[in-house]
Amino acid sequence: MSTFDEYAAAVRQLSVQVREGERGAAAEAERRRRLHAGVAQLGQRLAAQGQRLDQLGEAIGLPPATAAAPDGPDAATDPPVATGAVDPDADPDADLDADLDADLDADPGVVLEEARRLVDEADLRTREVETLAARPELLPTWSPAARAVAVYVACAAAGVLLMLVLVVASGVGLVSGFTLGAWICAGLPVLSFAAGWLILGRWGRPALATVEPPRFVPLGFVICVALVPTAYCASLLLVRFLR
User: Fold this and answer.
1) Phi, psi at residue 204, to the nearest 5°?
2) DSSP single-letter state for residue 66
3) H or E element at residue 195
4) 62: exposed, middle or buried (C-beta count within 10 Å: 0-12, 13-18, 19+)?
5) What is the pLDDT of residues 176-223, one digit of tens each?
6) Where are the domains of the chain?
7) Which helix (H) or strand (E) holds 114?
């Protein structure tokens, strides 16, 4: 082979290597661009999670957590972290650090995918918390109307028990007939209704409710006003029947 042929072959080989190097550099640049875009997206999602956790914490009476000031020269490049209100005994970054420590020497793309998986899981847990917070503490699986009926009936039943105590007290002369009638016709029904109204407002309101929940005032008033006198009349009939 002549010197010229050797020279031409070397040029062709060099050209192939240059093209392969350019393709490799372009692929590396694209990989880095995707990594940076993924990190930026995760940062935005973490910031949104932090804001939502602060809102949830505020809804249940917890002050928003304050992120600690980052230290060191690389603090400006660190990705943002969620600053939502959490249990003071829990470390919100412990699980993330434990899962990622084993992948520090792995491909950055693998680490990014693992971080994305953890953020997806945090989103799922947040939605579960929101679902629970949208339910009231009292009878959470019941409909508002059924819950109101149950509360007013329970309060009216408590009023009936007090009525029986007053009846016994009237029988031994501790309570006059006028006082007994006033409590049965007005006092106990009103107290039962007021107790049910307050209970629905306190424990029948979801933590994330933005408006006052329905308390079914007419229905509750009818239940309380009707049940106590009806129970008194039934007790009179029972006593007469047993005599």
Assistant:
1) -100, 10
2) -
3) helix 188-203
4) middle
5) 889 988 999 899 999 999 999 999 988 988 877 777 888 999 999 999
6) 3-133, 144-242
7) helix 108-133
